[in-house]
Amino acid sequence: MDIEKKVWEVLCSEEDIKNRIKELGKQISIDYKDKNLYVISLLKGSFIVTADLVREITVPVKINFMTTSSYGHSEESSGVVKIVTDIDEDLTGYDVLVVDDITDSALTMKSVIEHLEKKNPNSIKSCVLLDKPERRRVELVPDYIGFTIPDKFVVGYGLNYGDYYRNIPYVFVVTDKDREEV
Ligand code: IMP
Ligand code: MG
To answer: Residue 108 CA: which ligand 1 atom is closest?
Structure first.
């Protein structure tokens, strides 16, 4: 696909995202007031949402990153989630919040949560900017959701197409001139 020749349809504007992240940060700050919050961000897709979200959190927060295998250049998940870079510590006493850009099949979030549970955290919850519930292959409802979106391949604000477009400050869907989605 030559993305440059397609129509970019904005799904979540910069303003929408900013406002929603503010709300999520406020809610998380309330919910984790007397806890020991440890945000674990799933690279690469969530680097932007994490950077914006943690700056809206007003309680003490420890931040770390994990890398999981992603779709690569394809739009379909292989169904196998690989932990590429792990958290190298015991999570005893921490209230973990796993942050990702999007939950699609939910295979990533589910396997990351199962993996982190073995490190003995006090609690584990999930936070995603975008949720595509129609695409589920395993049962999972993220605890904090920015936007619930239809089954469309989205790009921008951390989400890639190929190796590009993660830096676009809004979320968009790519459509053909005749309005057919890619
Ligand atoms: P899941 O394991 O199917 O839930 O997918 C999780 C990962 O797939 C996300 O962290 C994204 O990196 C990637 N992904 C899923 N849907 C999209 C999309 O619409 N655009 C870009 N990346 C996506
Ligand atoms: Mg990802």
So the answer is: 2
